[in-house]
Amino acid sequence: xxxxxxxxxxxxxxxxxxxxxxxxxxxxxxxxxxxxxxxxxxxxxxxxxxxxxxxxxxxxxxxxxxxxxxxxxxxxxxxxxxxxxxxxxxxxxxxxxxxxxxxxxxxxxxxxxxxxxxxxxxxxxxxxxxxxxxxxxxxxxxxxxxxxxxxxxxxxxxxxxxxxxxxxxxxxxxxxxxxxxxxxxxxxxxxxxxxxxxxxxxxxxxxxxxxxxxxxxxxxxxxxxxxxxxxxxxxxxxxxxxxxxxxxxxxxxxxxxxxxxxxxxxxxxxxxxxxxxxxxxxxxxxxxxxxxxxxxxxxxxxxxxxxxxxxxxxxxxxxxxxxxxxxxxxxxxxxxxxxxxxxxxxxxxxxxxxxxxxxxxxxxxxxxxxxxxxxxxxxxxxxxxxxxxx
Length: 390
Description:
Layout: H1 2-9, H2 31-34, H3 38-52, E1 56-62, E2 65-68, H4 73-76, H5 87-101, E3 103-110, E4 117-123, E5 128-132, E6 138-144, E7 147-152, E8 156-160, H6 173-176, H7 178-196, E9 203-206, H8 213-227, E10 244-247, H9 257-272, H10 288-314, E11 323-327, H11 330-333, H12 337-349, H13 355-361
Antiparallel strand pairs: 1-2, 1-11, 3-4, 3-8, 5-6, 6-7, 9-10
């Protein structure tokens, strides 16, 4: 096991970069450069941070009742040798890999005696390749400083964002939408260059007579050095020798830069299935009531499926046939204290919860045995009871 650990530790570089592939927008998009697009950064960060911050519990299903059990140590201390490695970083790194590369990988070391995981770490997706073995099972080829090491699926937890057919890897959102993301990146870069040039990027210097190529280059360089850029945009140009400068008109509004940027944000929101207002889009028109409804919809259709992927993958690391892992999303549904207390009142009055159970949900101490009683309205009876019977 120590050889295995040393081998995998040597091959864990930080950051993302899946090559330099130019798209039709004239720029190149990689998983690393895609995060320079603010909407992509916001979308991936929103998913990763939200899921990583959720409470996680391990439960036992006993006769249809969910009962909490002792949490495995790896869930809170994924890497015993690194005291700074936390569950938040583990889940955040896994979700980020899935959303950018389309694939997330966890390398797992097990205790030979108990069969329980003792170490769990996130792998860099660019260092993992998958092939089929002679028996048809996937073989994970992990590149390390010492070379390429092969591992079976027993030591690898693989999460796919978009499984496709018989492919061993999931489709990457960045690769599949390279042109869309490239346009967003190119628009941002063009706007930055436009304003860096003083919002008047070009013009024509007319001089009488003929100039050699060297003279034209020197004139062009001198004029740009003295008059181009934000610091020089208010400088007064002085031309001699009959030279004349004619600026080329460039109206950024006519080029629809703002509209293009807004459309890019909408496209990223569509790709990642995240509400537009969560990306702080200026064209997101929502009321307070609609924001709450949209948030619930995102939990059901966007965040929920991603949580289900993570739960299904981590289930392999939970020992026991009826034991399962679950992320608690109740906190995401909480709105105001008033609404929460009103919900508790309904549950108390209909015998769904006891006082002690409500206090436990609010992290308060029980009031004693009397708090374990369940109450119901006295003017209600059993449906099948005849009138007049007790």
